[in-house]
Amino acid sequence: NAGVTQTPKFRVLKTGQSMTLLCAQDMNHEYMYWYRQDPGMGLRLIHYSVGEGTTAKGEVPDGYNVSRLKKQNFLLGLESAAPSQTSVYFCASRESGLNTDTQYFGPGTRLTVL
Amino acid sequence: DQQVKQNSPSLSVQEGRISILNCDYTNSMFDYFLWYKKYPAEGPTFLISISSIKDKNEDGRFTVFLNKSAKHLSLHIVPSQPGDSAVYFCAASSGYSTLTFGKGTMLLVSP
């Protein structure tokens, strides 16, 4: 099992450009999440999904859109990138049982917006 | 308002000694707590967790203590090893939905 994978690993954008980050998991998890990590800020939740076809806003959703068309994939889109979106983005997933809240993370995507 | 606080940005410990990482929370609805470990250029990896119905959970060298009345939890690593050098994140949830993370503590274990 590959676990949680993220594509791409690195990307440099110019202000105003758009891009999509792809997250894939092969653990048949219902829940998926997108976070951003900035220096001194910890991990902040952008959007999440509790199942195929559903999405919800997290703590810092502005400037991002997401889609969960397939259970194993969760896409994060930036329609018009801004320098403030320079960050490391992490995807995570977890199973839906009530006895655990353990999330499994991907390796991250480092995005720079010039 | 920060609901999960890790007030020590860094901690240095000698190999073989105990490392104690602390975490405070303000939301009394949190009922599940986790610790994640993160190496540079990698994603966070789950380390250990504790439910609010317990006050201690142990897994090998790692023990998490929860003091609900003080809204405080701590991670003890005994004995500390150089490979434990990483950033440690405390996280909390209520109702098994989303996690709220602290800002992290960088642990450096020197030989």
The helix-strand sequence of chain A is EEEEEEEEEEE
- The number of strands of chain A is 11
Give the distance, in angstroms, between the N- and C-terminal Cα atoms of chain B: 38 Å
Bin the strand percentage of chain A: over 45%
Return the string of H and E elements of chain B.
EEEEEEEEEEE
Strand count, sense and barrel status of the largest sheet of chain A are: 7 strands, mixed
How many strands of chain B?
11
Poorly predicted spans of chain B:
none
Question: Structural class, from secondary structure content of chain B?
Answer: mainly beta
Give a structural overview.
- The complex is a heterodimer of chains A (114) and B (111).
- Helix content of chain A is 0%, strand content 50%.
- By secondary structure, chain A is an all-beta fold.
- In chain A, strands 2, 4, 5, 6, 9, 10 and 11 form a seven-stranded mixed beta sheet that branches. A four-stranded antiparallel beta sheet of chain A has the order 1-3-8-7, with no helix packed on it.
- The radius of gyration of chain A is 13 Å and the shape is globular.
- Chain B is built from no helices and eleven strands.
- Chain B has strands at residues 4-5, 10-14, 19-25, 32-38, 45-51, 56-59, 62-67, 72-77, 86-93, 100-101, 105-110.
- Chain B starts with a strand and ends with a strand.
- The model of chain B has no long low-confidence stretch (mean pLDDT 95).
- Classes of the chains: A mainly beta (114), B mainly beta (111).
- The A-B interface holds A 4, 33, 35, 40-45, 48, 58, 90, 92, 98, 100-108 and B 9, 32, 34, 36, 41-46, 49, 89, 91, 93, 96-99, 101-104.
List its salient traits.
heterodimer, A: 114 residues, four-stranded antiparallel sheet, 11 strands, B: 111 residues, mainly beta, globular
Give the secondary structure arrangement, pairings included.
The complex is a heterodimer of chains A (114) and B (111).
Chain A: E1 4-7, E2 10-13, E3 19-25, E4 31-38, E5 42-49, E6 56-57, E7 65-67, E8 73-78, E9 87-94, E10 104-105, E11 109-113
Parallel strand pairs in A: 2-11
Antiparallel strand pairs in A: 1-3, 3-8, 4-5, 4-9, 5-6, 7-8, 9-10, 9-11
Chain B: E1 4-5, E2 10-14, E3 19-25, E4 32-38, E5 45-51, E6 56-59, E7 62-67, E8 72-77, E9 86-93, E10 100-101, E11 105-110
